[in-house]
Amino acid sequence: MYDFIVNPLSRSGQGHSIWKTVETELKKENITYEVHFTAHRRHATSIAEEITKDGKEHTLIVLGGDGTINEVINGIKYLDKCTLGYVPTGSSNDFSRGLGLPCDIKKAVTSVLHSGHSKLIDIGTIRYRNKKRRFAVSSGIGYDAAICHTVCISKLKVFLNKIKLGKLAYVGVSLDRLYHCRPAGMTVRLDSGQEFHYKRAYFAAAMNLPYEGGGCKFCPGAFCDDGLLDLIVIADVPKYRALAILPVVFSGGHTHMKGVHIVKCREAQIVSDNPLPIHTDGEPVFLQRKLTMALEPERLKIIIP
């Protein structure tokens, strides 16, 4: 039995019509399923929690974007008893890109129903002020989170999604946020005992997969099954050098550029001199100064092609 969690507003309101296409295929094949439509922010979290709270094994299929994936994994009660399938209908789709999942709707549905293959992946966590949130793709503090916060409320994103150019929203907002960005002093402490101090940090992001922000390949060496996070910090360079880094991140060719610092770790504590925006898989968190990034002890089974 499949439980489909569907964001009808994904892809700028096309999620519901996409679901109708998926449902037609399910009925053709006499697949047993239940569908749960999200109606508001964080609804997918409560849906996933309700389904999985019994401690039994469940297969959840998400139809939505990276934000819907984030909400679902934050609701799963027992990661090691759940199997997750994904039909991507978002604008960035970094989760599917990082895992090599099909973005074509029919191919994605065929994959989740018939591939017979799965992969155990790490799930990240952030902790701040006695709160905890999970992430599947990445979590960041500073400039990259400010972009996510702005894109989430951007009318431009809605318009560009309708003409299938949603990624351009990230490009426009990233330039605007860089112009207004005020780098902050930042200290990073790793579980290995290493400690790094930056006078002017633009952002720090823990990557579980290589991409975030609609295809920015921040950490080409990030693997979601190695028990490690890849932490990238952009710091201590003037804005014109930071601007030069931006176009290169799409190819992953920025890793040796001045101002780019990448390390692998199991846990990282970040302390900023100033409160900064935070995101988990693009979902905004209120301004914070301190947070800890790590991995859950359990892994999550993902259906792959």
From TrEMBL:
<keyword id="KW-0444">Lipid biosynthesis</keyword>
<dbReference type="InterPro" id="IPR000756">
    <property type="entry name" value="Diacylglycerol_kin_accessory"/>
</dbReference>
<dbReference type="InterPro" id="IPR017438">
    <property type="entry name" value="ATP-NAD_kinase_N"/>
</dbReference>
<dbReference type="InterPro" id="IPR001206">
    <property type="entry name" value="Diacylglycerol_kinase_cat_dom"/>
</dbReference>
<protein>
    <recommendedName>
        <fullName>diacylglycerol kinase (ATP)</fullName>
        <ecNumber>2.7.1.107</ecNumber>
    </recommendedName>
</protein>
<comment type="similarity">
    <text>Belongs to the diacylglycerol/lipid kinase family.</text>
</comment>
<comment type="similarity">
    <text>Belongs to the eukaryotic diacylglycerol kinase family.</text>
</comment>
<keyword id="KW-1208">Phospholipid metabolism</keyword>
<keyword id="KW-0067">ATP-binding</keyword>
<dbReference type="Pfam" id="PF00781">
    <property type="entry name" value="DAGK_cat"/>
</dbReference>
<dbReference type="InterPro" id="IPR016064">
    <property type="entry name" value="NAD/diacylglycerol_kinase_sf"/>
</dbReference>
<feature type="domain" description="DAGKc">
    <location>
        <begin position="1"/>
        <end position="130"/>
    </location>
</feature>
<keyword id="KW-0443">Lipid metabolism</keyword>
<dbReference type="InterPro" id="IPR050187">
    <property type="entry name" value="Lipid_Phosphate_FormReg"/>
</dbReference>
<keyword id="KW-0418">Kinase</keyword>
<keyword id="KW-0594">Phospholipid biosynthesis</keyword>
<dbReference type="InterPro" id="IPR005218">
    <property type="entry name" value="Diacylglycerol/lipid_kinase"/>
</dbReference>
<dbReference type="Pfam" id="PF19279">
    <property type="entry name" value="YegS_C"/>
</dbReference>
<dbReference type="InterPro" id="IPR045540">
    <property type="entry name" value="YegS/DAGK_C"/>
</dbReference>
<dbReference type="GO" id="GO:0016301">
    <property type="term" value="F:kinase activity"/>
</dbReference>
<keyword id="KW-0808">Transferase</keyword>
<keyword id="KW-0547">Nucleotide-binding</keyword>
